[in-house]
Amino acid sequence: MTTIRSMTAYSRQQETENWGTAVLEIRSVNHRFLEVGIKLPENLREIEHNMRQLVQEKLSRGKVDISVRYMPGDAINVDVHVNRNYAERLVAACNVLSENHSQSAPISMTDILRWPGVTETTDEDVDIVFGPLLKLLEVGLDRIELMREEEGARLQGFLEQRLNAIAAEVEQIKARLPNIISGEREKLHARLDELQSQVDPARLEQEILIFSQKIDVSEEIDRLDAHVAGVRDVLKEGGSIGRRLDFYMQEMNREANTIGSKSADVDTTKHAIELKVLIEQMREQVQNIE
After folding, report:
1. Which residue in 17, 121, 157, 271 has its CB near the most CB atoms, within 10 A?
2. Percent residues over pLDDT 90 in the chain
């Protein structure tokens, strides 16, 4: 049996070598399709395509956000360039503000260097980071898959429990149908006795037949039973089944609505409402299955 997988997971991987320190985080949540967002330092943008391909090989659905933080090590030749013209203009602007605000704290050169656009770094040998970074991503994706499978197992147990409850509700509706029709027949006879009216027995049976046809939900119950069996088969099959399960939820909800609209007594209405509650609980969880 293939395992079903959730789309919610988180992974954080970190590695430090002579090429530097890399921290890679992966967040995965539910989504109709596979949507991958990758946040990389500018000097590592070249590897984005390879990272995206690796994610597509591992995952089929979900919104996956990947962020990478990187600090060069001794093996990387780093040059720092200062935009002196921009920095001098920032210093001049700070001096003007200081003249008008005597209580303000002085601005240090470190503060100026931290300002976006003042400094630019170039890493001559940054390509040696690409291999380790892809390996780090692969490890992170393996962790994501494991977490998805663990959560998927929990979701499968939840869905099977609800399927059993739905089957029980359907059986109770089946058992009530003959009693509803016989009860309606008794009500009609009692009403006629009160009115001391004579009615053609054939006409009475015709009215009973019309009533039984109006409340007949045997087709809806048969289809609901088939959908329950279909969901069980899909869960056993496993894999990427989220879209198929979502379709089954729509069909099951349609049958439950029809059963409720045809209901002729309070108990059947209660069972129909409970069916809708159980199906909605399943639908909410199915949204998170890959």
Report:
1. 271
2. 50
